[in-house]
Amino acid sequence: MNGLQDLVLGLKEAPAYLVVVLHGWGAEGKDIAQFAEIFVRIMPFAAFHLPTAPFPCDDGRGFDWLGENGVRSSALLLDDFLDRAMAKYGLDESKTIL
Hints:
alpha/beta
């Protein structure tokens, strides 16, 4: 998938749901994998995507969803990411959890 880098957990083919988990400031998608694994066990019928925010933090530790223009900076990237992930699995918004 182009755009945001992500880690994929859970069902990778024909999932019933798409779950996208966003990390907080100063982290990366992979940093929340252990947390997400709990939900993978609860929802084995879902694909879990853990994208990494597009902007490096000012202090060099991890990444941030807010760029110079606040959340608008990453909104288009995240929207494109969601569209591509849903299309990959043939799912729509009703089967997507953010």
